[in-house]
């Protein structure tokens, strides 16, 4: 067993964890950062999902460091790739020309930029990164987390990290039960929150589906994978509200809940399918190839790519069979989620209806090299919902939903520590719910949502802040997770400099204002201009 002592332990190296570590490090603090998977960056890298962002992202509404990450990705392509002259001159370069956002890119590009951002702190010795490590125990005394035990997944060697502050940036809030931090899972009841979209009473096991993403292209030859042993099971799966089998191009429309058949055009000429990125009333996913395309042939010089490269994160991959939090069947459900995605790959290669009347695309080729795996599937499942702290302030639907508020102007909080924007977007759930998709105002992140009701030196730094099952649907995406992590790292450093706990800051308006000033100085936007949500 190894023992380490540091100022701040950040457990979980997803987007929130990386942002938290960077924030603490720039304040001169020593940090131990741990991560379960080979790549830092979470949903952007190991989960392989390009960023879901709001329509104003190129002008405002993200932190300065998140903007540096985005511009770093573009610079990476300009420095390393044979771009066309048009693409190289484009200040808003979108390598994949996908519709989900203005920046669709390969996960390895984000990993390269994250590595560069952390590099000077590794050289200085103020940052220690432990991979692949998971938390297995913690010591908490009178509401103070004294230490966290991290286990190397390969060697089983344990490292005990003592820290003045502990930040939980894991994908599913894994530190919360280990530290005795009060938390909630699944759907809160309307009887507790008053949210119009909540069920009447709490459903702790009803959570958003996970999805195991994969990356592929299309080239000459037969790249059909071996027929999965459980293929017939997945082929027969047809939830009542789906409108067809899961292995089809049909899925409910998030906005109308009516079954809608998507198209799948292999390597289409640019601009022949879809258009600009989706927003407003257009979810942008009517053509599955274009929606999350992460490398478009037209971006690069002729001959550079034999095919577009596409990230599959589609409704048909949403795993409804059970959740992966607080259950002994976690590994069973993880394997099943990946099996569902594998079955969909085989269906695409062998049975999917083609526009020319044929069936299947045997030329579809899984690209494990793009995601750092041997099988073409992401290193980690895409997690949409985490355990969430019982917070001093919980954001509810009434705070941010346009219909409830009666207008789409920004939802403001006096103790704001950041901003975000996304529709309240809940995928079909393990409890059998269809989509919940609600028009949302541009929102702010209240400091109170980062402060646990009980544990005094633990901070949430990812999707585990004080939101509900409903509002998590808006607060869970890439730039918001980064902002949450960055503000948590800043808060830990602010408290250490003044011998305070987060609850002390929250309790005094003057301290809140000082902390907000520190955030603003660091490039964190804490209020929106006058804009309208969608």
TrEMBL record:
Molecular function terms, GO-annotated: oxidoreductase activity
Pfam family, one: FAD_oxidored
InterPro entries xref list: FAD/NAD-bd_sf, NadB
Alphabetic keyword roster: Oxidoreductase
Superkingdom of the source species: Bacteria
Listed EC numbers: 1.-.-.-
Name this protein carries in UniProt: FAD-dependent oxidoreductase
Species of provenance: Glycomyces mayteni
């Amino acid at each position: 067993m190894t023992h380490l002592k540091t100022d701040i332990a950040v457990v979980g190296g997803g987007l929130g964890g990386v942002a938290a570590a960077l924030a603490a490090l720039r304040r001169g603090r020593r940090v131990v950062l741990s991560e379960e998977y080979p790549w830092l960056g979470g949903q952007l890298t190991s989960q392989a999902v390009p960023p879901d962002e709001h329509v104003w992202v190129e002008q405002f509404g993200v932190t300065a460091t998140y903007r540096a990450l985005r511009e770093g990705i573009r610079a990476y392509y300009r420095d390393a790739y044979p771009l066309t002259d048009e693409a190289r001159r484009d200040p808003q370069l979108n390598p994949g020309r996908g519709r989900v956002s203005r920046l669709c890119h390969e996960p390895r590009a984000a990993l390269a930029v994250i590595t560069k951002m952390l590099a000077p702190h590794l050289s200085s010795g103020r940052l220690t990164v432990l991979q692949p490590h998971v938390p297995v125990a913690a010591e908490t005394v009178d509401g103070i987390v004294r230490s966290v035990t991290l286990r190397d997944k390969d060697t089983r060697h344990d490292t005990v990290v003592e820290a003045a502050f502990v930040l939980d940036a894991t994908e599913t809030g894994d530190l919360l039960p280990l530290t005795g931090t009060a938390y909630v899972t699944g759907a809160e009841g309307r009887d507790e929150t008053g949210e119009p979209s909540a069920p009447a009473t709490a459903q702790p096991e009803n959570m958003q589906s996970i999805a195991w993403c994969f990356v592929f292209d299309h080239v000459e030859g037969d790249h059909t994978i071996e027929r999965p042993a459980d293929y017939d099971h997945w082929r027969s799966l047809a939830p009542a509200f789906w409108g067809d089998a899961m292995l089809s191009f049909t899925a409910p429309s998030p906005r109308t809940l009516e079954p809608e058949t998507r198209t799948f055009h292999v390597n289409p000429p640019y601009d022949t399918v879809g258009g600009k990125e989706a927003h407003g009333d257009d979810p942008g996913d009517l053509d599955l190839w274009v929606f999350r395309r992460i490398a478009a042939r037209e971006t690069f010089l002729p001959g550079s790519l034999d095919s577009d490269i596409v990230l599959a994160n589609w409704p048909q991959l949403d795993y409804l069979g059970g959740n992966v939090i607080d259950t002994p069947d976690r590994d069973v459900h993880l394997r099943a989620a990946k099996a569902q995605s594998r079955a969909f790959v085989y269906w695409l290669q062998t049975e999917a209806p083609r526009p020319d009347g044929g069936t299947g695309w045997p030329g579809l080729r899984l690209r494990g090299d793009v995601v750092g795996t041997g099988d073409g599937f992401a290193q980690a499942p895409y997690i949409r919902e985490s355990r969430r702290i019982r917070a001093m302030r919980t954001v509810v639907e009434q705070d941010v939903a346009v219909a409830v508020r009666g207008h789409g102007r920004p939802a403001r909080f006096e103790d704001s520590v950041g901003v975000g924007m996304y529709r309240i977007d809940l995928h079909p759930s393990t409890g059998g719910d269809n989509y919940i998709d609600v028009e949302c105002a541009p929102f702010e992140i209240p400091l109170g949502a980062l402060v646990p009701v009980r544990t005094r030196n633990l901070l949430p730094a990812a999707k585990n802040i004080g939101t509900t099952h409903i509002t998590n649907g808006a607060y869970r995406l890439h730039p918001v997770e980064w902002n949450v992590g960055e503000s948590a790292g800043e808060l830990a450093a602010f408290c250490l400099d003044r011998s305070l706990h987060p609850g002390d800051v929250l309790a005094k308006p003057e301290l809140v204002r000082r902390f907000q000033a520190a955030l603003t100085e660091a490039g964190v936007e804490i209020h929106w201009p006058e804009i309208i949500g969608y």
